[in-house]
């Protein structure tokens, strides 16, 4: 298990390095292959963890809510058929910073090295960006003056999608529903997303040790109910847009703070 955890950490680092390259290189196939290998290793770690855990422990810790999350994540919901012309849609979800001034919403959405937001992008087919006050480091770039109008807005999540109209609406809807749910701080000790992020952080740091909690985090990998995007689903995500505020993929050189957040 330790060897697999170390291999996973190397894969995550390699993916980060690929995404940090300028857009002109366009190593799409390399990123795809690394993503497939990461998914395969996660599956393998899940199987090994389940074998090592006793069934009684599994039964005691699997609550009704966890079972429901797992069932929702494995339900294959078909997407609308491609028809008509492609449209560009976007929606803002404002972060409840006034209600929870000390809560790290940015870190919760991004996850370690932006992995949570990247996963949401990949599963929804949408572009996920964090904008508004608090989305960039103050005074870190002279280019920030260009975005003064954007900085006047409250902190928010911007979801964008380009696809055939009905498909785009469905993708936006599912991504927004998931983000709204993520913006509700859960009770202490009941945050499955945080457990998953801490597990991913331990893998990155090379300190991962299999536990019951990590097994559950591995099981509930999906952020969204399964969705049939078709062969071109991921190509419909909006890519390469020039925006200074935080991107999930950390590709903008103006502000790199999105590449790592400690969920603790």
TrEMBL record:
Keywords assigned: RNA-binding
Domain (K Homology) ranges: 87-180
Pfam families recorded: KH-I_KHDC4-BBP, STAR_dimer
Listed InterPro entries: BBP-like, KH_1_KHDC4/BBP-like, KH_dom, KH_dom_type_1_sf, STAR_dimer
GO molecular function, one term: mRNA binding
UniProt keyword Plastid, yes or no: no
Any GO BP annotation: regulation of mRNA splicing, via spliceosome
One CC-aspect GO term: nucleus
PANTHER family: RNA-BINDING PROTEIN ASD-2 (PTHR11208:SF147), RNA-BINDING PROTEIN RELATED (PTHR11208)
UniProt name for this protein: K Homology domain-containing protein
Native species: Cercopithifilaria johnstoni
